[in-house]
């Protein structure tokens, strides 16, 4: 992608937002009824708890719609659940798509997410630039092309930032390997327990 294809804007998909509305719509009555059925809690406390739950659910819906990633001629802006971050093209050290370590815990999580890395090598997740919302390989390729064009002729990669990024990648690789080993051990132990129970009955 070159500059003429900017701006790019990435937001939550209508399907995901509809699912969030349904989840809140189904979950809210259950939580409210659970609070109302608390026997040893004063009525005033119940009302406060219900108000807190409603505010929390409302905030989650608002924040989900507010979150976004946009790329324009000046750089990349990420609006997160709390706060926002703007990275000028020249201060970005790298843009990568990576496996999502949380995907194994929730089937609705994206399998691939993406990050931009700032001038110190700290990463900023590019909200909604994931395989639940876009063709990640294509969009990261487009954003990287804009970055390479707009970061300026004097841009140089910082060795310290690169080292930090590589350490982070190694840590994540070890964490993923640990999670896979843990799941494998749990599965084997479960099979052994089942065999022992079945054989003993």
Explained architecture:
The protein is an alpha+beta fold and about 200 residues long. The protein is about 50% helix and about 15% strand. The strands form two sheets. It has a four-stranded antiparallel β-sheet with strand order 1-2-3-4. A hairpin with a 4-residue loop joins strand 3 and strand 4. The model has no long low-confidence stretch (mean pLDDT about 85).
Structure at a glance:
The protein is of the alpha+beta class. Helix content is 52%, strand content 16%. A hairpin with a 5-residue loop joins strand 6 (112-117) and strand 7.
Order of helices and strands: EHHEEEEEEHH
Spatial separation of the terminal alpha carbons: 65 Å
Radius of gyration: 23 Å
Low-confidence sequence ranges: none
**Backbone shape:** extended
- The structural class is alpha+beta
Counting DSSP H or I runs of 4 or more residues, the number of helices is 4
Tell me the quaternary state.
single chain
Q: Which percent range describes the beta-strand content?
A: 15-25%
Biggest pleated sheet? 4 strands, antiparallel
Furnish the topology, listing elements before pairings.
Blueprint (H helix, E strand, L loop, with lengths): L7 E4 L2 H23 L6 H24 L1 E4 L3 E5 L4 E5 L5 E6 L12 E6 L5 E3 L10 H15 L8 H42 L1
Antiparallel strand pairs: 1-2, 2-3, 3-4, 5-6, 6-7
Helix pairs in contact: 1-2
Labels describing this entry:
201 residues, alpha+beta, four-stranded antiparallel β-sheet, three-stranded antiparallel β-sheet, 4 helices, 52% helix
């Amino acid at each position: 992608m070159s500059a003429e294809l900017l701006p790019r804007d990435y937001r939550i998909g209508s399907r995901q937002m509809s699912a969030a509305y349904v989840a809140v719509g189904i979950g809210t009555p259950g939580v409210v009824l659970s609070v109302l059925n608390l026997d040893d809690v004063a009525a005033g406390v119940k009302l406060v708890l219900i108000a807190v739950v409603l505010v929390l659910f409302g905030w989650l819906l608002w924040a989900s719609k507010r979150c976004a990633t946009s790329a324009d001629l000046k750089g990349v802006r990420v609006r997160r659940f709390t706060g926002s971050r703007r990275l000028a093209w020249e201060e970005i050290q790298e843009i990568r798509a990576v496996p999502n370590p949380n995907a194994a815990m929730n089937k609705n999580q994206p399998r691939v997410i993406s990050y931009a890395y700032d001038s110190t090598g700290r990463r900023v997740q590019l909200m909604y630039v994931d395989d639940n919302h876009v063709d990640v390989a294509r969009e990261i390729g487009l954003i990287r092309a804009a970055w390479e064009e707009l970061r300026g002729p004097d841009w140089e990669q910082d060795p310290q930032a690169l080292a930090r990024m590589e350490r982070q990648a190694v840590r994540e690789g070890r964490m993923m390997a640990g999670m896979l080993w843990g799941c494998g051990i749990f599965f084997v132990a479960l099979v052994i327990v089942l065999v022992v129970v079945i054989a003993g009955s």
